[in-house]
Amino acid sequence: MSLLATSNQTVGPYVHIGFAHLFRNELAPANTPGERVAITGRIVDGDGKPMNDGVVEIWQADAHGRYAHPESRGNAAKDAFKGWGRTPTDRDGRFHFSTIKPGRVPVPGGALQAPHLSVLIFSRGLLRHLWTRMYFPDDAANAEDPILRLVPHDRRPTLIAQRQGAGLVWNVVLQGADETVFFDF
Question: Which H helix or E strand runs over 15?
Answer without folding.
Answer: helix 15-19
